[in-house]
């Protein structure tokens, strides 16, 4: 059986190289294939300077049939090397993404999302003949409708300031110091993707240690981000110059050394702690006055684990929402208590929940947890 070597670039034709990889060995494929752009002739800006479009040989196909045959070959090979729990991302533009999308479905992939990457700094439509083409599409798929797959929902929500992450992502093109340039100041690769895009893709759909495969590695964006986020990676690329640039780039990346910095615990995996158990344990005795962080509203703790304010009574969440006139509230982070020796500092009561969770975790692992005592 072939073993899987990771953290390396494999040079050659992507379908042939994929054929040499073991079955069901990869957790995530991120593919940025040739788009078959079909740009006819030079495109000039109003000042007559030439637009640096993608006219490279690797992006040219004789016709749609040739492009489709190419797409089927690499997609089929990716389907084989993906684990049953794996997912595949393909990025493309209006030139190719509809053809790729149809093939994904024909090959049995199950579309989970189509994500719009909205470019915050797109290239204008110089001729003024169409709308500015300001987005690209990423299709995200599992191996079938019933496949279990990784989606780090909490990490995505945290990345979006506590709001559920949507399928439209506003991110700039890769410019500035991130853009690889050669000694003459020219772009090393015409379609280098922004690392922010890959950061989101990899954080959303993989865990530290997972294997991320990019069959069209180009300048190495996927590998650089995968390495930084503590994932293993494999890149396939045909062009030796791109490979050299990617190798240098990836070598300079320092991985985050602590896995807890690149994982967000799932809510469901954390034990539920009722506020009542904080009261029962004497961590907040009945009568304790809680307030919001600015001291605008206050409420007293009751022996049954509910709160009572001037006008409301109910759970920490209900009273928190009611005093603000809000539809909902997370009482653990809204309500604060006085902590510290001088009792002058307001800290969220969530710290008590975290302490109880840590105790539970320590019981589970047989290590001694800290219990009781004032919160400093
Ligand atoms: C759209 S670019 C990928 C850019 C990459 N995402 C980045 O951020 O730099 C596609 C890459 O695929 C490579 N390529 C095209 N056809 C290939 C094939 N049949 N096998 C292997 N590599 C191929 C090209 O050389 C090019 O670097």
Automatic annotation (TrEMBL):
Pfam families: N6_N4_Mtase, RAMA
Enzyme class per UniProt: transferase
InterPro entries: DNA_methylase_N4/N6, DNA_methylase_N6_adenine_CS, RAMA, RM_Methyltransferase, SAM-dependent_MTases_sf
GO MF terms held by the record: DNA binding; N-methyltransferase activity; site-specific DNA-methyltransferase (adenine-specific) activity
UniProt KW keywords: DNA replication, DNA-binding, Methyltransferase, S-adenosyl-L-methionine, Transferase
Start and end residues of each DNA methylase N-4/N-6 domain: 26-247
EC annotation from Swiss-Prot or TrEMBL: 2.1.1.-
Gene3D superfamilies listed in its UniProt record: Vaccinia Virus protein VP39
GO biological processes: DNA replication; methylation
Start and end residues of each RAMA domain: 263-360
Annotated catalysed reactions: a 2'-deoxyadenosine in DNA + S-adenosyl-L-methionine = an N(6)-methyl-2'-deoxyadenosine in DNA + S-adenosyl-L-homocysteine + H(+)
Domain of life from the UniProt record: Bacteria
A GO term from the CC aspect: cytoplasm
Similarity-based family: Belongs to the N(4)/N(6)-methyltransferase family.
Name of the protein: Methyltransferase
Source organism per UniProt: Roseospira marina
């Amino acid at each position: 059986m072939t073993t899987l070597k990771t953290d390396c670039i494999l040079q050659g034709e992507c379908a042939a190289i994929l054929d040499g990889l073991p079955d069901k060995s990869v957790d995530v494929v991120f593919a940025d294939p040739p788009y078959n752009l079909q740009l006819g002739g030079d495109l000039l800006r109003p000042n007559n300077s030439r637009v640096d479009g993608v006219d490279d040989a690797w992006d040219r196909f004789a016709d749609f049939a040739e492009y489709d045959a190419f797409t089927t070959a690499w997609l089929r090979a990716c389907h084989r090397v993906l684990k049953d729990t794996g997912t595949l991302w393909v990025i493309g533009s209006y030139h190719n993404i509809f053809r790729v999308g149809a093939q994904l479905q024909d090959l049995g992939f199950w579309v989970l999302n189509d994500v719009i990457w909205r470019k915050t700094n797109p290239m204008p439509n110089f001729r003024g003949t169409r709308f500015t083409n300001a987005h690209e599409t990423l299709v995200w798929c599992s191996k079938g409708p019933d496949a279990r797959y990784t989606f780090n929902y909490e990490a995505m929500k945290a990345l979006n300031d506590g709001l559920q992450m949507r399928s439209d992502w506003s991110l700039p093109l890769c410019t500035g110091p991130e853009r690889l340039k050669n000694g003459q100041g020219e772009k090393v690769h015409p379609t280098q993707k922004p690392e922010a895009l890959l950061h989101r893709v990899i954080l959303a759909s993989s865990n530290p240690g997972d294997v991320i495969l990019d069959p069209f590695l180009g300048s190495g964006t996927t590998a650089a981000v995968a390495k930084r986020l503590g994932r293993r990676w494999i890149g396939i690329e045909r062009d030796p110059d791109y490979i050299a640039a990617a190798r240098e780039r990836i070598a300079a990346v320092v991985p985050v050394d602590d896995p807890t910095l690149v994982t967000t615990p799932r809510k469901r995996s954390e034990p539920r702690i009722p506020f009542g158990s904080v009261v029962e344990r004497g961590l907040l005795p009945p009568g304790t006055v809680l307030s919001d962080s600015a001291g605008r509203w206050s409420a007293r703790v009751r022996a049954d684990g509910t709160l009572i304010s001037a006008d409301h009574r109910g759970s920490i969440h209900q009273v928190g929402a009611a005093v603000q006139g809000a539809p909902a509230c997370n009482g653990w982070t809204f309500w604060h208590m006085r902590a510290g020796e001088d009792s002058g500092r307001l800290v969220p009561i969530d710290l008590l929940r975290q302490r109880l969770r840590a105790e539970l975790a320590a019981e589970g692992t047989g290590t001694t947890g800290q219990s009781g005592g004032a919160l400093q």
